[in-house]
Queue: 2 jobs
Job 1
Amino acid sequence: MDGRCPSVVSVQTTSPSVTDVLHAAQLIAPRLPETPLWSYPVLDRRTGAETYLKHENAQPTGAFKVRGGINLMARLPEEQREAGVLTYSTGNHAQSIAYAARAFGVPCTIVMPENPNPSKVAALEALGAAIEVKGATMVEAGEYAATLAAVQGNRLISPADEPDLIAGVGTLYLEILNRCPDLDAIFVPIGSGTGAAGACLVAKAVAPRCRIIGVQSSLAPTAHDSWRAGELVRRPVGTVADGLATGSAFATPQRIMRDLDDFILVSDEEIRQAQRILLYEAHTLTELAGAAALAGLLARREEFAGRKVALACTGANASPAELHRLLSSPPAGT
Ligand SMILES: *Cc1c(COP(=O)(O)O)cnc(C)c1O
């Protein structure tokens, strides 16, 4: 340790197993129905592959992370439920924890960095979370969160070094492979890596020949560069895809992601083009991060021609500015 606050220095935890994912599926089933896995002929023409979209945009919070929140909260010891939970996030992780906390009657505090998106604040308030705005960046917000959790006696929830979050989001890949056991590949967008770690756990156990391919923005390559280097590195964040905008790496998902078959970077313009294709041709609204898997497949079009491929369409929480831009620019090409 280098003396920094443990909440922002990644901590070692135990890795979840595929059995933990099966347990998570049991806990999640009564609260979150299976999301659709659909194909679209126009999309197949675009990609040249037999393509299946996993519609996590259809989750009640608009993103896949709620699977992890529900699993963590369902397994939380009684004394921690009573003490309340606290986490820090600008977006979908916060909504996942606030949604799950409300479902289980657990008091919840969210620390957000300064100048938060007002529509995200409104969504969190509607879920009954207490919101504290503090810190210029996520790192500072994380430091404040650790201090506040200690003062309030809350259970501090890391955005990614949490085995229960990883096991929970792993259920998404269990659903995909249960419907489609003979997939050649699944493309997974990566920020901190919880989703991709869940995908690795599941695929390795139930469909070892299905390749798991991670996709990140070249303007926020922290997880990618950490994976290539084999150690946790920090990188500046310049991407507009906020679900992928992670500046520091997390040990637990990185350890499990050693099993990724490949990890590729795409440009923000490639992600924007994929977002437009999904809206105009598959009638599916995604936020930018939710379109990154398609951007990855389009970047590897030749390699996957004629193959059977699923794309994790991870979320739909586009900002008003993003929506405006989307509607004023149809996708290029055919
Ligand atoms: C968080 C998020 C991701 C990245 O998931 P990680 O588990 O952090 O790698 C991708 N898409 C959306 C919509 C997200 O909210």
Note: The CA atoms of residues 63 and 310 lie 17 Å apart.
Job 2
Amino acid sequence: MPEKHYHVCPRNCYDTCSIISTTVNGVLVSIEGNPAHDYTKGKLCPKAMNDIQKVYNPSRIRYPMRQRQRFSGNWERMSWDEALDMIAQKIIDSKKHDGNTLSLALNKYSGNFGALHNAMEWLFSGMGPTTRAVGSPCWSAGVDAQTYDFGKFFCSEPREMGHAKLLWLWGVNPAWTAVHQMPIIFDAMDRGSKVICFDTYLSDTAARSHRFIQVKPGTDGLLALAMCKVLCEENLMDDKLYDYTLGLVEFIDYLTNSIDLTEAAEITGVKAEIIRELAIEYGQTCPACIWVGFGLQRYTNGGQTLRAIDALGALAGHIGEKGGGVHYGHFETWKFAGAGLPEQQNRQLNINRFAREALACDKPPLRVLWLSGRNPLAQDADLKHWHRLIQQLELIVINDLFLTKSAQAADIFLPATTHYEHWDLNSSYWHYWVGINEPAINPVGEAKSDLEIAWNLSAKLNRFEKGSCSFPTSGSERETALKQLGPDMLRMLGLNTPEEILDRPIKAKFPPTAWENHEFVTPSKRYEFQSSRALAAGLPALPVFEPALLPSKETPLRLLTPHHSMMINSQSYQDALSDYYDLYINPRLLENYGLKIGETAEIWNEYASLQVKVKVDMSLPEDVVIIYQQAIEQRAQARNALLNSNLSDMGDVAAGGKGLAINETFVSLRKLTPSERSF
Ligand SMILES: Nc1nc2c(c(=O)[nH]1)N[C@H]1C(S)=C(S)[C@@H](COP(=O)(O)OP(=O)(O)OC[C@H]3O[C@@H](n4cnc5c(=O)[nH]c(N)nc54)[C@H](O)[C@@H]3O)O[C@H]1N2
Ligand SMILES: Nc1nc2c(c(=O)[nH]1)N[C@H]1C(S)=C(S)[C@@H](COP(=O)(O)OP(=O)(O)OC[C@H]3O[C@@H](n4cnc5c(=O)[nH]c(N)nc54)[C@H](O)[C@@H]3O)O[C@H]1N2
Ligand code: SF4
Ligand SMILES: [Mo]
């Protein structure tokens, strides 16, 4: 008999879709979107449609393995008992040697965002103060910027965007990265709404918009401030601003004295008359909504860019307006109960400089590294530091599904379950739904959930040395998932008991329009053009333009590496992997560099060099080139070897650490002789 099961797609993706799977005799046979979910609406993206192949993929690792020499590929199977013995013994030995547990490090991020994947953090907290990767490579600057402006990181329910008469998609590419938002945007267009996309090149989203505004990378903050100035000049500001904002006079002073439209036009690449026209249309249209993407803030001035765009929304009176606002994301529905373990005095390393900061650790140095839901050798900057760190570490454990680039550096591989094989509870950073994830099938091979691994290792540790880990040694996954719905979450979801979520996903009972009635939660309880918290963090109190880094004579091309339609970061959902990267360039560069389409060329900078196959995109500026986060054979060199670890300006206050200025990567390009080409 076919059986149905609820799941939530746990990927680091805006949509966090509700999935219904069907099993027959314990085998997963189909998955579909849940029609009762008002965001998923019964549809899934092509990445999820490949889930069955992913679950039963022959390359998926099905049992624990040990690698005799790092990067040798010389893996041999071992039992869970042997693997956990080895890890527990090393933990106990390190602790004895150092007299504390700080040499044990956890680096976990976005492979699976389910609440029970915090089990790894719980396990480490149970051992004592350890070393942790904190912050995010993704969105930190923007999270802090919105926290300064509004008081916390929150935005309207995404379907509200459908009410906008004017919608600006700013540095966001939902046609690829948030596909369930597209029908909402298209419906609004059908009802007569106007959609404008601001990007550095003609993304698929820009191509589907009414108008494309091409902005020079890293200059959007200035564009927003120039539009703010136009709103002042044209008297298009909300006339109630004095009632609910702080620092308006100072902000207008800054605009008057420091922002010049002619200069802004030159820097941003958007003509002054277009800046004026856009600002007037935005000021005069109600409701008008802006959606700012994460790609836009991966610059050294990314936080200021977000603050400038928020300020534009505020000046025009669009904050708190139904169908208006500045959407970016939220984490209001992530208030899981946790495991009730004591807070530890951990040694915190910024995830974006993890290897660099880890190398500087002594007393004690890092000895054991646990990677979970992470692929730093594909996704991080500072790869040279990573390779040095790997040489120094005494034990590297990874728990993952596949032998990723980072797994090649590990000593022990622990096979993880997918969301069809374990219990979990998932929230979104975009919409307001929370859903239970139930197992549909038994774990494939000997795979174990992160929670079970944590219990089993805690049991081992306590067998070796009683009291060495306070995390439980066994339990029920289902109960642990339901327990994550503590009183706060139950109230938020309007539930009496956690069990009610077993019947269906539930939407948090927030009013759909963020900052309705202008009830902000900043220190002044007002919208803060002028933020004392920003000032206290060593930043300008007002949103100001601070130039991002520019290409130089040595490295004249900016390398953008945006997210791909068919992948989530390093997670591939295509069968055919390529063993080289495609580099997209403006066709004029072909002439400048004597290249042909399809030819192999080299890009390089002070950190690394990479052979690429040249393709063209007519919409790219001549000094911007693109490599998407595409599916690449494990043996190919990582694209991220070209990245430095410049941090963005914000992220310390609400995001755990400063973000990564990924889009400030610069390279040189050259044609290769036939004998130099590897493909
Ligand atoms: N050049 C460049 N680099 C970037 C970016 C960019 O735009 N350009 N983007 C950055 C951003 S925004 C992000 S968020 C990061 C993401 O970087 P990471 O956090 O490393 O995320 P992923 O590559 O999505 O996944 C990491 C690993 O999780 C594993 N995984 C999947 N499901 C599970 C599970 O259920 N359990 C366990 N244990 N493992 C699982 C996957 O197989 C994968 O190997 O990359 C950053 N790096
Ligand atoms: N299919 C798919 N979906 C995903 C992901 C994925 O890898 N694949 N990853 C998930 C994750 S982890 C994240 S963080 C999100 C990211 O999704 P988005 O928020 O959409 O961000 P990006 O795709 O990084 O970049 C969006 C756009 O910003 C543009 N951009 C870059 N610099 C600038 C600039 O200076 N000015 C302007 N105006 N535009 C600029 C890029 O050209 C790109 O088109 O997507 C999530 N969803
Ligand atoms: S990857 Fe994103 S869009 Fe696709 S099913 Fe998962 S959450 Fe939905
Ligand atoms: Mo991300």
Note: The domain at 557-676 is CATH 2.40.40.20 (Barwin-like endoglucanases).
